[in-house]
Q: What sequence folds into this?
């Protein structure tokens, strides 16, 4: 059992298609010749190392790393986290760093050698011996919560260069016209999660020197990173190890043109998908160039509406914050933003537009339309009472320890979803009761997270190979459990919103936890949320989740399969656990969740097709080879109209891999017509804000969004 704790519009199409590729499927990236820089400063080989550390373990995600590097990470009370890194811990650097000023700022070191770093000076981990100590590392109280930004200029030959990063934990490597700018860089290699390695290829059409940015994080445990290239004979050599044929790296240019202000960070991140981390406001950090940003010139509109801003200047950085928006905002809803600013003196104006998800403000009525907190039933004592009356539980697993024993996760008591008390779950998996304390509901920390009873499911390492009843190869059986609720009456709710306390823990194995709803007594099902850990995330070129790939990829050794007489084994992919039709339309409903406290939160999702329905049922599934557990409590449905916003509008149209993808904001349903002269508008039936169909199927079509 394993238990682990957009570039600018002028970028080339080949590069744009490489953005956000998943770690397991990293492809080639073509670097635009326009990104080449001038001569390097030969007296300054190596790298800049910008360092931040704030234990304890706060998750292995790049969004956490970017937040650290921008000085925006906060504790559970909302206070900015201080950088506890040690400026006098030189390690591989050429000298100490200045003290962090302010206390949440980065420590800035210079490294003139290679990136072969760990928390053990002189160690021999990974591919290369003689590790050097990570500059700035602080061992008191631990090395957890590390983040680093590595900046350099790499001189690359024409053709392909294979690179690799071996690290504990995750990393992201980027290039672009200005990798410091959140909109001036593109991902060339990224791996999310614990220890591991990823190789990737960059293609250079014109030899020259290109800027690179590599960010790295250690959530907890071991700590190291190596950055290398791979020769034609598969020999590995560290970047900047010139004696062994490594590519040259320099930390400065011979001369630098006057820089212009840039956008250092945006929260929520400008990506068209749900992340694990949400934000209660839009926060943007601008960095001065040769001239400062004209603070008074900064203006921002969200969803077409001008937004008041709070501005805070710290030295050469300006942070602007929208504050908490009015009304209910849910992480799965898409938004658009447009930022404008100019330099002091008004000589340069920049306008930047983007779309994003992950804005959250849970403002809920005092009384739900319908609810279920499971407290009116006794704790389950047998399979007959494993779930409440009217609920139906099924599973595909095997008996590991016969007999009913709620103190033993391997017993029959945990083959299905089971109704248990919080006292019982505390004894077997107490982490389920530890929620994200930074999440607020109605402006207050979440109260009554889980109390009394809850329904609970666990994957405790049950896995073996069993014969296929249809005569095929043996079937790898893990643990998969389904539960369908009794009906909820939402006949009075015009704008239903579902909330529930979700005590989810998804480890680094192949696993999935999902929720769906039905308005026709279970004949068909609609998406609510599909939770996947970082290791099973697959992204499309536009940065959205690749729903089809995430549902159809197979791994017979780790994903549960189960026998179906007359049909053959099902499973082997996650799509068989989903009852809604598999298509790219499911992408907005996927959400990244991992094994950390930030995944244990109140989930809130609009259910538009449940409006005024008298029989609404929920379906929860848990699947994986060792996915740990999921506890659910305080299911509630509220009637909350969507906030008044600008008219619906299409924000992005892209053609890639033979398909057209359309995104829009502010509600409405996408319609299409074969012509604009005497148009015949036909609804696609899609109001999720994201739609994809094959170009061949689309033919000649025009699209609009209509409320």
A:
């Amino acid at each position: 059992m394993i238990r682990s704790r957009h570039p600018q519009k002028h970028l080339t199409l080949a590069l744009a298609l490489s953005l956000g590729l998943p770690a397991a499927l990293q492809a080639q990236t073509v670097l635009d010749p326009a990104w080449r820089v001038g001569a390097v400063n030969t007296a300054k080989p190596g790298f800049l190392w910008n360092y931040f550390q704030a234990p304890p373990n706060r998750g292995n995600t790049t969004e956490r790393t970017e937040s650290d590097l921008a000085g925006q990470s906060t504790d559970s009370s909302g206070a900015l986290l201080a950088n506890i890194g040690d400026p006098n811990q030189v390690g591989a650097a050429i000298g100490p760093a200045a003290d962090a000023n302010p206390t949440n700022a980065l420590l800035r070191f210079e490294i003139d050698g290679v990136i072969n770093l760990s928390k053990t000076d002189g160690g021999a981990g990974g591919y290369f011996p003689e590790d050097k100590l990570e500059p700035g590392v602080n061992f008191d109280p631990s090395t957890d919560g590390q983040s680093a930004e590595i900046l350099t200029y790499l001189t690359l030959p024409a053709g392909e260069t294979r690179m690799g990063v071996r690290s504990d934990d995750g990393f992201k490597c980027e290039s672009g016209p200005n990798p410091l700018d959140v909109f001036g860089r593109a991902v060339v290699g990224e791996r999310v999660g614990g220890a591991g390695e990823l190789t990737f290829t960059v293609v250079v059409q014109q030899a020259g020197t290109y800027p690179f940015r590599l960010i790295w994080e250690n959530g907890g445990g071991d700590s190291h990173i190596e950055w290398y290239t791979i020769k034609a004979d598969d020999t590995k050599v560290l970047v900047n190890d010139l004696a062994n044929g490594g590519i040259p790296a320099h930390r400065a240019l011979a001369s630098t043109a006057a820089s212009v202000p840039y956008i250092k960070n945006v929260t929520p991140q400008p990506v068209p998908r749900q992340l694990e981390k949400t934000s209660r406001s839009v926060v943007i950090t601008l960095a001065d160039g040769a001239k400062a940003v004209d603070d008074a010139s900064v203006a921002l509109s969200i969803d077409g509406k001008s937004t008041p801003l709070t501005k805070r200047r710290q030295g050469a950085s300006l942070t602007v914050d929208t504050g908490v928006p009015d009304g209910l905002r849910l992480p799965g809803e898409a938004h658009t933003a447009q930022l404008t600013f100019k330099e002091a003196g008004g000589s340069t104006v920049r306008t930047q537009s983007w779309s994003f998800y992950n804005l959250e403000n849970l403002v809920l009525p005092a009384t739900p339309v319908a609810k279920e907190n499971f407290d009116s039933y006794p704790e389950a004592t047998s399979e007959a009472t494993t779930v409440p009356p009217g609920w139906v539980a099924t599973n595909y697993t095997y008996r590991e320890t016969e007999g009913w024993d709620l103190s033993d996760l391997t017993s029959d008591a945990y083959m299905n979803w089971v109704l248990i008390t919080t006292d019982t779950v505390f004894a077997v998996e107490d982490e389920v009761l530890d929620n994200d304390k930074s999440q607020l509901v109605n402006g207050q920390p979440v109260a009554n997270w889980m109390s009394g009873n809850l329904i609970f499911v666990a994957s405790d390492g049950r896995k073996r190979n069993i014969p296929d009843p249809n005569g095929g190869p043996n079937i790898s059986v893990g643990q998969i459990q389904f539960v369908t609720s009794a009906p909820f009456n939402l006949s009075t709710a015009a704008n239903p919103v579902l909330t529930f306390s979700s005590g989810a823990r998804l480890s680094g194995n192949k696993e999935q936890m999902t929720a769906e709803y039905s308005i026709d007594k279970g004949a068909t099902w609609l998406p609510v949320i599909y939770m996947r850990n970082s290791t099973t995330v697959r992204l499309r070129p536009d940065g959205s989740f690749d729903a089809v790939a995430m549902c159809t990829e197979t791994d017979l050794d780790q994903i549960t399969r189960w026998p179906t007489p007359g049909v053959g084994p099902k499973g082997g992919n996650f799509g068989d656990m989903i009852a809604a039709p598999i298509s790219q339309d499911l992408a907005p409903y996927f959400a990244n969740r991992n094994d950390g406290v930030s995944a244990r939160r109140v989930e809130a999702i609009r259910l538009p097709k449940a409006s005024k329905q008298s029989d609404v049922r929920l379906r929860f599934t848990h699947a994986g080879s060792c996915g740990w557990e999921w506890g659910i409590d305080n299911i509630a449905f509220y009637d909350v109209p969507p906030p008044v916003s600008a008219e619906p509008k299409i924000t992005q149209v892209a053609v890639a891999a033979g398909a057209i993808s359309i995104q829009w904001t502010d509600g409405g349903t996408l319609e299409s017509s074969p012509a604009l002269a005497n148009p015949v508008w036909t609804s696609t039936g899609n109001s999720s804000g994201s739609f994809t169909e094959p170009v061949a199927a689309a033919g000649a079509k025009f699209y609009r969004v209509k409320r």
